């Protein structure tokens, strides 16, 4: 039996996947929700190991051959194939759980009710999505005359109608789409969890025993994993849209940055109803009637502000820099350093690697035929860092979180954020260089600061600056 | 050695470039003599120029190189030019639309992804556009110009196939499909999948039989089109397109130009509206063109009829023996062994004089062998020049630059 590596999903599919593996005797130790482990060992088979990834990373990891097999939802496979149709990926089996669809949807409060209305006129449709490759193909097939795709890390459902015209997003079914006050215009594909394989592994290795266990599971009459409710359910979202163009649109962060942002806002004159962690409303109500607020991912804010979809946003300097590395002429600018949310963006390598700086890493790399593999959430910062250091051949591996799991097997260098460095040390990693000291900041658009809203924007900025100074 | 060239990319070596230039020179010469003017468009264009319905098929759009520019934060994508005609139409709208007629030509590369990596993803073409005329004679002019260029390249056996997108679209219309289905069917047909039409046609119906008459037979004169026009079941909607097709064909008949009418020969471009034609040599397609009356208004210009064609450089290059090949042996190598300021000066002066006298002259600093017919070696002591005629295996000495040039001239 050949040694088999399998990439397993975090998040939404984890519970059902863990149940399937347990029932089919392919159980892995520590493959549980909120696990801190990344590398897993099979409880029964010494030839079988696994690593946990964000679902979106799995097709890429399997396609490049770091893993022989993987489990992820079909939508992420299709997203990869939409752009890279020659990827060495095989869809081996439909695992039947995690059912859902990819929809192209518009707001029920907007003016679009069928896809045919999209192909006329000169208007440039704004599409937000976590699936930019599929979105481009969809837009081309629908013969949209002009369109702009805004890739987002999440919360696509909250953008329409005011901050985008269309969202391309995953949902369990149409009713879940409608609960977000959206209308499904087109179902692009239905996607279950799939077992996928690397083509080369499939052609050269014997993985039959593992496949046989999956087949056994699929033939069982009682499939308990199909009954497991998904771990993540989108809250429904009812609201009145606001198209008043004189109002200030403010974007606030979800995730890790939410609690410190809330603490900070408590010191300002901007009070919000519904921006607490236990019950997240993506459209919290502000006490100022000239302000509209949406809660989105901090990663997505610079691009949104650049395009005028939002006027102001609280994000991190790390994400602002990443945006500016990609688009040097972007009109986004930092308006206030808010001081909290301190992290460092660092270049990280394995403890086992005898290098202390990028120059030495380059030398080690020069002796190898293969390019340096660099994993990062900050692909544009990473790209610039490598260019500036004259690394001649490198491959960027974009990641969607949990990047520390990539070293040393699946990447040589990591560009990652860290607060204390403890997590990195625990994973046997060391910091080679600090690229950026980041804190939370208020960002705005240079052009909108000169617009008819400029007085209101100035008052808003003042509210934030006052709170910074009062500390 | 590891290969560092991009997959699907191509180096043009000296012999390739020589052939390309040879074809290009003939192409340019005839275009200019027919009153066409050369233009160049940028390699980068906005994607939306190519995405409107009626421009490129989704299959072609799925292979474009599109990306965000460094200032692409607005999400507006740019592409590496996937087609030659659309950028020229844009150039016309933005700069030349006050001209009643614009006769334009260009030499350009176009980019399309090809997934095996064995074929070229960057291809060269020579294009001609005649903008502003809807007269059948302009379609004929383009066909004749293309034929003249091919003949002067030594290609006398090019086959011409004619089709007519207007006829094709009118036929599709008779199937009474909904607009989405019709577009999808047309796209598949343009991608070369004619079977879909055979499948879509109703069996044992007037329209089914009519489609068979159009698709299954190949005509050789305008008579074929007149026969179709005379059929009792011919729908009224087909008549204008058929009239236009037949008129063009009768012009070609009068000019003694042979062709084959094959409705299934049209390919690839959704923007064609009228006559489309292609040229092939021994079964290989070397060029194609057609009428695109709706493209300029679609791109935001005035209602302007236009037609054009492109010749494909790669298949042509394989068919052609450039006449300029005998160059080998007619040049001179100037060689000097001792590197001194004085000998360098003499050798550059000698080479300059030889070039002025009309010889290709190359300098040699390392004493290598050469295929050039003559070698002139500069010696340290007088007589200063040794003239070697490699063709006759003769050596002569000369004391001055003038003498050396005379010696070469006498023996040539």
Topology, please?
The complex is a heterodimer of chains A (471) and B (412).
Chain A: E1 4-9, H1 14-23, E2 39-41, E3 48-53, H2 58-63, E4 69-73, H3 74-83, E5 89-94, E6 101-107, E7 124-129, H4 132-141, E8 146-151, E9 166-171, H5 174-179, E10 182-190, E11 193-198, H6 199-204, H7 208-219, E12 248-253, H8 258-265, E13 272-276, E14 279-286, E15 291-296, H9 301-306, E16 312-316, H10 317-326, E17 332-337, E18 343-350, H11 358-366, E19 372-376, H12 379-388, E20 394-398, E21 413-418, H13 422-426, E22 429-438, E23 440-445, H14 454-469
Parallel strand pairs in A: 1-3, 1-4, 7-8, 7-9, 12-15, 12-16, 19-20, 19-21
Antiparallel strand pairs in A: 2-3, 4-11, 5-11, 6-9, 6-10, 13-14, 16-23, 17-23, 18-21, 18-22
Helix pairs in contact in A: 3-4, 10-12
Chain B: H1 14-33, E1 37-38, E2 44-46, H2 48-51, H3 58-61, E3 66-68, E4 77-80, H4 85-96, E5 102-111, E6 122-131, H5 136-152, E7 159-164, H6 165-174, H7 179-190, H8 195-200, H9 206-216, H10 222-229, H11 239-254, E8 260-261, E9 275-281, E10 284-291, H12 295-298, E11 306-312, H13 313-319, E12 332-336, H14 341-356, E13 361-364, E14 374-378, E15 385-389, E16 394-398, H15 401-411
Parallel strand pairs in B: 1-5, 7-8, 12-13, 12-14
Antiparallel strand pairs in B: 2-4, 3-4, 5-6, 6-11, 7-9, 9-10, 10-11, 14-15, 15-16
Helix pairs in contact in B: 1-5, 5-11, 6-11, 10-11
């Amino acid at each position: 039996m050949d040694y088999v590596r399998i990439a397993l999903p975090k998040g939404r599919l984890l519970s059902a996947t863990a149940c399937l593996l347990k029932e089919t005797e392919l159980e892995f130790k520590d493959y549980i929700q909120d696990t801190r482990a990344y590398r897993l060992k099979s409880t029964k088979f010494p030839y079988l190991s696994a690593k946990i990834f964000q679902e979106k990373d799995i097709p890429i990891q399997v396609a490049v051959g770091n893993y022989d097999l993987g489990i992820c939802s079909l939508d992420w496979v299709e997203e990869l194939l939409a752009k890279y149709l020659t990827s060495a990926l095989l869809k081996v089996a439909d695992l039947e759980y995690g059912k859902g669809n990819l929809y192209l949807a518009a707001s029920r409060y907007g003016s679009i009710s069928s896809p045919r209305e999209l192909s006329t006129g000169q208007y440039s449709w704004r599409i937000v999505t976590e699936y930019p490759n599929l979105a481009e193909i969809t837009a081309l097939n629908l013969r949209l005359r002009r369109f702009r795709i805004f890739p987002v890390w999440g919360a696509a459902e909250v953008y329409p109608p005011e901050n985008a015209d269309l969202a391309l997003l995953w949902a369990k079914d149409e009713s879940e789409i409608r609960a977000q006050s959206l209308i499904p215009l087109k179902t692009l594909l239905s996607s279950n969890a799939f077992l996928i394989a690397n083509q080369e592994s499939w052609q050269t290795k014997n993985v039959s025993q593992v496949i046989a266990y999956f087949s056994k599971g699929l033939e069982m009459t009682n499939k308990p994993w199909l009954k497991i409710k998904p771990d993540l359910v989108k809250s429904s979202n009812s609201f009145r849209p606001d198209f008043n163009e004189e109002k200030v649109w403010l974007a606030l962060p979800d995730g890790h940055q939410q609690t410190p942002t809330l603490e900070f806002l408590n010191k300002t004159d901007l009070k919000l109803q519904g921006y607490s962690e236990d019950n997240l409303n993506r459209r919290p109500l502000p006490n100022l009637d000239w302000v509209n607020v949406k809660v989105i991912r901090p990663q997505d804010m610079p691009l949104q502000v650049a395009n005028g979809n939002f006027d102001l946003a609280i994000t991190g300097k790390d994400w602002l820099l990443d945006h500016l590395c990609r688009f040097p002429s972007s009109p986004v600018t930092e308006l206030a350093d808010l001081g909290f949310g301190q992290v460092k963006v660092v270049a990280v390598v394995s403890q086992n690697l005898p290098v202390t700086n990028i120059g030495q890493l380059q030398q080690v790399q020069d002796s190898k035929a293969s390019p340096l593999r660099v994993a990062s959430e900050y692909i544009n910062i990473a790209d610039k860092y490598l260019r500036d250091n004259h690394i001649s051949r490198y491959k960027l591996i974009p990641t969607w979180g949990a990047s520390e799991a990539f070293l040393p097997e699946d990447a040589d260098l990591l560009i990652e954020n860290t607060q204390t460095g403890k997590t990195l040390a625990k994973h046997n990693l060391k910091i080679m260089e600090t690229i950026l000291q980041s804190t939370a900041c208020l960002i705005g658009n240079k052009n909108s600061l000169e617009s008819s809203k400029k007085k209101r924007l100035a008052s808003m900025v003042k509210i934030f600056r006052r709170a910074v100074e009062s500390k | 050695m590891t290969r560092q060239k991009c997959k699907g990319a191509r180096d043009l070596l000296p012999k390739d470039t020589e052939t390309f230039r040879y074809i290009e020179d003939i192409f340019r010469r005839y275009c200019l003599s027919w009153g066409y003017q050369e233009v160049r468009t940028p390699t980068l264009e906005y994607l939306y120029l190519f995405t409107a319905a009626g421009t490129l098929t989704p299959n072609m759009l799925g292979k474009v190189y599109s990306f965000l520019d460094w200032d692409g934060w607005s999400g507006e994508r740019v592409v590496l030019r996937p087609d030659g005609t659309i950028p020229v139409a844009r150039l016309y709208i933005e700069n030349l639309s006050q001209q009643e007629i614009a006769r334009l030509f260009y030499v350009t590369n176009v980019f399309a992804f090809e997934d095996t990596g064995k074929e070229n993803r960057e291809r060269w073409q020579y294009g001609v556009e005649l903008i502003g005329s809807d007269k059948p004679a302009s379609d004929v002019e383009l066909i004749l110009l293309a034929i003249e260029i091919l003949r002067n390249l030594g290609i006398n056996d090019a086959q011409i196939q004619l089709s007519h997108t207007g006829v094709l679209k009118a036929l599709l219309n008779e199937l009474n499909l909904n607009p989405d289905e019709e577009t999808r069917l047309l796209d598949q047909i343009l991608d070369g999948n004619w079977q879909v039409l055979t499948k879509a046609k109703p069996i044992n119906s007037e329209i089914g039989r009519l489609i068979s008459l159009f698709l299954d037979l190949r005509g050789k004169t305008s008579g074929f089109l007149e026969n179709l026009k005379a059929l009792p079941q011919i729908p009224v909607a087909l008549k204008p397109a058929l009239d236009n097709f037949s008129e063009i064909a009768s012009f070609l008949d009068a000019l003694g130009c042979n062709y084959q009418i094959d409705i299934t020969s049209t390919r690839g471009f959704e923007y064609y509206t009228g006559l489309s034609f292609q040229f092939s040599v021994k079964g290989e397609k070397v060029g194609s063109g057609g009428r695109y009356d709706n493209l300029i208004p679609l791109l935001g210009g005035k209602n302007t009829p236009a037609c054009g064609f492109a010749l494909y450089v790669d298949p042509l290059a394989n068919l052609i023996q450039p006449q300029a090949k005998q160059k080998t042996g007619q040049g001179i190598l100037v060689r000097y062994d001792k590197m001194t300021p004085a000998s360098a000066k003499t050798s550059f002066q000698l080479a300059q004089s030889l070039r002025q006298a009309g010889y290709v002259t190359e300098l040699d600093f390392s004493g290598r062998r050469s295929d050039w017919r003559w070698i002139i070696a500069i010696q340290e002591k007088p007589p200063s020049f040794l003239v070697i005629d490699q063709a006759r295996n003769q050596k002569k000495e000369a004391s001055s630059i003038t003498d050396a040039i005379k010696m070469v001239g006498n023996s040539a």
